Amino acid sequence: MLFLAIDSFLLASCGNNNPPTNISDSVSDISSDTSSDTSSSESSSTSSTPNPENPKAVVTTVKTLAQKKASDNKNLYRVTGIAQYPGYYKKGYFDLVDDGWTIVAYGVSSKNTCITLSGSTYSYSNNDSFSSTGIRAGDEITLEGIFTFYAYSSSYGVPEFSGYPTRIVSNGLSVVTAKSYTVSETYSGSYYNSIAVSDSGSSLGQKLHNLMMSTHSTYVSYSSLTTTLKSTDSKCFYSGQSYSSFNREHVWPQAKSKDGNVQLFGESYAGSDIHHIRASINEYNSYRGSTMFAPMFGTPRTINYTGGGVAKFGSGNNYGVTEPADSRKGDVARIIMYVYMHYGTDFGGTTKANVTGKLYITNVIGANSMSDCFKLLRKWNAEDPVSSEETNRNEIAFSKQGNRNPFIDHPSFADRIWN
After folding, report:
1. How many domains does the chain have?
2. To 5 degrees, how large is the angle CA 49–CA 55–CA 58?
3. In terms of residue numbers, what domain contains 119?
4. How confident is the model at residue 2 (pLDDT cuts 50, 70, 90)?
5. At what angle do helices 370-383 and 326-343 cross, to 10 degrees?
6. Which of 47, 102, 107, 152 could form a disulfide with 126 if both were Cys (CB 3.0 to 4.6 A apart)?
7. Residue 251 has what DSSP assignment?
8. Residue 37 domain-assigned (yes or no)
9. How many other CB atoms are found less than 10 A from the CB of residue 35?
10. Are residues 287 and 383 in the same domain?
């Protein structure tokens, strides 16, 4: 856990009565092995008791722990909540939510031997056995373990819970079903003349990558976005509210552009791409932090989205989850697919030092497998069609950079590549 202490001071507060200070994108590492396929067949509602409960454990709530501001190694706690998609499946790092509050389950083991008592002090040791618990997003679980609070100021910090499950109620994780884009596409320019109607799969992906690389003639500065976003983004990306000041939000977080210890982008290239960066109110940018995009389960923290719907937020840290409002899910999908296609190297297209590199879709999209990540992106792409705002942004970015977002002009490209 020592490696977390440095990173955690950047992370967001979890209680919705205490909005965190601004943290644009935390920069701690995340392992690439989140891309491994951990899917399982959908199960019916069942209960299990993997480990016996300790009668000395203090029964508490997610809300109580989320409000607790000091680490405690003198007590065992027992808490029940709804598990979200793990951000790092091997070690069991995920949000645990209940009644609008969130704590970070930072390491969940299948064995009660992960907690040891020495004298009057409890300690935790992760044995990387989370996968054998069978816990999936949406399950109601009771955890027993110890509480740690990583403070990064006198008021805010990260409440974390480490331990093992004593009860699992499996609600059967919903299967992700892809959808195809059916709304008429309106782009009629010549930008895609090199793309054939018959192109699909990796061939289409490579052609689009090469096209964006060859036409992206100007990589704008991060500082210039302060002016540009005023003309492209009239509302906060996450809340739909007007703003007097805003953050330049990396929809694909900087911290999630890492391959091992190598971070692909910060505030240049992909990190300052107009197609990628959106304006967000500081508070909600902090709520999102560096979390994955995924469906949320249970009752997490929510904010009303102006114009209808809600956005749902977990802990705001590297391993949590954010579910955008329904009217923003397509925007998110088309931005994520753009960054992955343009700057990632999975399609074997043209490469450029310090610009392109390995990007892991499982770092930014929460699902049971890599294939499910793309199913979820296609689903959101279809359910929230391209808006006039996106079309306008695309034109402004095209005029300043020279390249376009193909998933705004032709959203059906997503189906042709990942179907």
Report:
1. 2
2. 100
3. 43-170
4. very low
5. 130
6. 107
7. S
8. no
9. 15
10. yes
Q: Which residue has the tokens 């209680």?
A: 15
Q: How far apart are CA 13 and CA 23, in angstroms?
A: 10
Task: Please tell me the pTM assigned to this model.
Answer: 0.87
The pairing of strands 301-304 and 310-313 is: antiparallel
Asked whether residue 256 falls in the same domain as residue 405, the answer is yes
Residue 164: strand pairing partners: 144
> Same structural domain for residues 141 and 211?
no
For residues 83 and 215, state if they share a domain: no
Task: Kindly state whether residue 346 falls inside one of the protein's structural domains.
Answer: yes
**Distance in angstroms (rounded) separating the CA atoms of residues 235 and 242:** 5
Residue 332: which residues within 8 A CB-CB, separation 6 or more? 251, 293, 324, 380
pLDDT for residue 30: 28
Helix 201-215 crosses helix 326-343 at what angle (to 10 degrees)? 80
Residue 97: name the closest of 292, 279, 321, 371 by CA.
321
Specify the higher pLDDT residue, 401 or 19: 401
Instruction: Tell me: do 333 and 379 sit in the same domain.
Output: yes
Are 223 and 356 contacting, i.e. CB atoms less than 8 angstroms apart? no
Query: Cα separations (Å) of 414 from 185, 219, 231, 252, 385?
Result: 13, 25, 27, 18, 13
